[in-house]
Amino acid sequence: MHGGTLLGIFVGLVLGLAVAAVIAYMLGKSGLTGAPVAPGVQKEIVRSGKPETVPATSTPEKPRFDFYKILPGAEEAKVPKAPETQTKPVDRLWLQAGAFANETDAENLKARLALSGWETSVQTATLPDKSVRYRVRLGPYDNTDELNRIKADLGKSGFDVAVIKNP
User: Fold this and answer.
1) Which residue has the higher pLDDT, 35 or 10?
2) Cis (ω within 30 of 0) for the bond into 140?
3) Which of helix, strand or coil describes residue 62?
4) What is the structure's pLDDT at 49?
5) Closest Cα partner for 140 from 164, 107, 116?
């Protein structure tokens, strides 16, 4: 009985190798396989006995996906251009969705907002009593109309946010 098992394994291995060899031969004959060609190198193809040189084409770039752009209902953040000559600093406005003593709580809120299509950041602030707060914020915004529209949209989605004036 023990010899039959070893014989079966050996026969299966030989048959598997034979099938793999036949498939490799057929693919090689059809021209579907070949040595990989480095980018920017010309490739020579032999058809009907005459070699032809094919110029190398640049490999197409893989599409880049921005997580926040592919979320449903997400809008691209509009970055206003600052004037070249600015005499006084512009007050920047933020929408604060929460402030936490625990960084994990802040990251959880950031994730919930991201799943709803909002891009946020967690800012660390050290208070005068040396404690640390993790603030979940959207922005900054220079346009109060845009800020109020986004605040209303967040409210409709169930997020209570506060307007923060911060340099």
Assistant:
1) 10
2) yes
3) coil
4) 55
5) 164
- The CA–CA distances, whole Å, from 120 to 39, 80, 81 equal 39, 18, 20
What is the DSSP secondary-structure string of 118-164?
A: ---EEEEEE-TTS-EEEEEEEEEES-HHHHHHHHHHHHHTT---EEE
- Conformation bin of residue 166: beta by default, left when phi > 0, alpha when psi is -120 to 50: beta
- Residue 86 to residues 1, 59, 81, 90, 145: CA-CA distances in angstroms? 91, 45, 12, 9, 22
What pLDDT is attached to residue 77? Answer: 52
For the record, the structure tokens of 87 come out as: 């005499």
Backbone phi and psi for residue 142, each to the nearest 5 degrees, phi listed first: -100, -20
Instruction: Tell me what the mean pLDDT of segment 74-97 comes to.
Output: 65
Instruction: Look up tokens 């960084």; give the residue.
Output: 103
What CA–CA distance (Å, rounded) separates 67 from 120?
12
Q: Going edge to edge, which strands form the sheet with 92-100?
A: 121-126, 132-141, 92-100, 162-166
Other CB atoms within 10 Å distance of the CB of residue 147: 19
Residue 79 pLDDT: 55
